[in-house]
Design brief:
The protein is α/β, with parallel strands linked by helices. It is 40% helix and 13% strand. It starts with a helix and ends with a helix.
């Protein structure tokens, strides 16, 4: 039978071990639908249901935890090696469940609501995002880092983006205005209004969005409307990171000031059309293009 001293030593060691054992606390964050999502412990298997969500999870320092993506999730390069479960509008829910995610990152207006609801009904925590301001991009990274337990890396990246945008704001605060048309799609012809994050890039760089007052976030317009607005600069993405063919259409309208002054500029679409930290690079390029237009006055 153990003596009292020996017994107290064992009990003390056991208590010390319990005290030193890592305590995993519940993590919670409120998504962009206003829903609070709580996990018993930081996520370890994440499904990202849009290319932008994939980039944001990587930006939050949790890329190694991503087990499922959707088509066109091509950045960073490591994301191309992650299993795809379809497109953002048509997911293979059975395949997604096989990958056993413990957190799903949804896209508020991009993923079909019925599919997100089906995932929630199956017991998966769904955190829906749609950042529409520069600050919201940083805040989204911070929330994802909280849910993934990667706060150190995620919060640092969020602050890097925040400070980079602030520098551009200071640089272009008093820039001469440039009337701008941004083409987000060709058939049907589509642009953005001032409430869209791309619209905020235009404003950031001292541009004036010629369709900024339209009600819809991504309104359909006509070629005649663009001619009538007569922008001084036209910027377009295109289908692909190096595909400038959308600009060729505007080259056939020499009466537009942007065409007459050769202010038809290509912007790689993923740099401004995904609400991710790469928007800082896209904004710098966008601002440079408007500087080129100013230099031609």
């Amino acid at each position: 039978m153990l003596n009292v001293s020996r017994r107290l030593t064992i009990i003390g060691a056991a208590v010390l071990a319990l005290w030193q054992a890592p305590v995993v606390a519940e993590v919670c964050a409120v998504d962009d639908t206003g829903k609070e999502v709580c996990l018993e412990q930081p996520a370890s298997r994440i499904a990202a249901l849009s290319p932008g969500a994939t980039e944001l999870v990587w930006a939050a320092g949790a890329g190694e935890k991503v087990v499922a993506v959707v088509s066109f999730s091509d950045y960073p390069e490591a994301a191309t090696n992650v299993p795809s479960v379809g497109s953002h509008t048509r997911m293979d829910l059975e395949r997604l469940m096989e990958l056993q995610p413990d957190l799903v990152i949804g896209w508020v207006t991009g993923n079909p609501p019925e599919q997100l609801e089906a995932l929630a009904d199956l017991g998966l925590p769904v955190f829906s995002i749609e950042p529409r301001t520069f600050e919201a991009v940083s805040h989204t990274i911070e929330r994802l880092a909280t849910l993934a337990g990667t706060e150190e890396e995620g919060f640092a990246e969020a602050e890097r983006f925040r400070r980079g945008i602030a520098r551009l704001e200071r640089q272009y605060r008093n820039a001469e205005p440039v009337p701008v048309f941004y083409q987000v799609w060709d058939e049907p012809l589509m642009t953005v209004n001032d409430e869209h994050l791309i619209g905020k890039v235009i404003t950031l760089c001292g541009g004036v969005n010629v369709f900024g007052d339209l009600d819809r976030l991504v309104p359909r317009i006509s070629t005649e409307a663009v001619i009538g607005a007569n922008p001084e600069a036209i910027l377009a993405g295109g289908m692909g990171e190096e595909n400038r063919h959308w600009l060729a259409h505007w080259e056939t309208f020499p009466g537009i000031e942007a065409t007459a002054k050769d202010n038809l500029f290509f912007i790689p679409p993923s740099l401004v059309q995904r609400p991710t930290p790469r928007m800082l690079d896209g904004s710098r390029l966008f601002c440079k293009k408007l500087d080129d237009a100013r230099a031609k006055r």
